[in-house]
Amino acid sequence: MVAEPSAATVPPRVAGTLTRYRVMSYVVGVMLLILVLVAVPLRYAAGIPEVSKVVSPVHGFLYIVYLVAAFDLALKARWTAKGTVLVLLAGVVPFLSFWAERRVTSRVRAGRPL
Q: What does the radius of gyration of the chain's CA atoms come to, in whole angstroms?
């Protein structure tokens, strides 16, 4: 049985960056789900645009913060260009940011490139 590497194996220069990326990945994923599953249907099916007018810019701002956090992690963990672009795009597809976060975390902790 192979145990998942602990956070202690992550170099100190990467540990804080990984935590910031993980938090932003979940925040952006939840906001995107709220946008897609609540705000957009309310806007177009029920004619209530107010929720979308609030959630859309909040998600947009948080996505930019996610991009900065993911790019910072990509630089410090020395990801490939392809891996970096795929992780950056994970914040625009519902549920994908959650999957990407798990994959990124396991690979960074194992010291493997993305």
A: 16
Structure tokens at 58: 């909040």
Give the pTM.
Answer: 0.87
Sign of CA dihedral 55, 58, 63, 66: negative
pLDDT digits (tens, 9 = 90+) for 52-111: 999 999 999 999 999 999 999 999 999 999 999 999 999 899 999 999 999 999 999 998
Tokens of 62: 């948080």
Task: Measure Cα distances from 65 to 19, 35, 62, 68 in Å.
Answer: 13, 17, 5, 5
Residues 86 and 5: their CA atoms lie apart, in Å, by 24
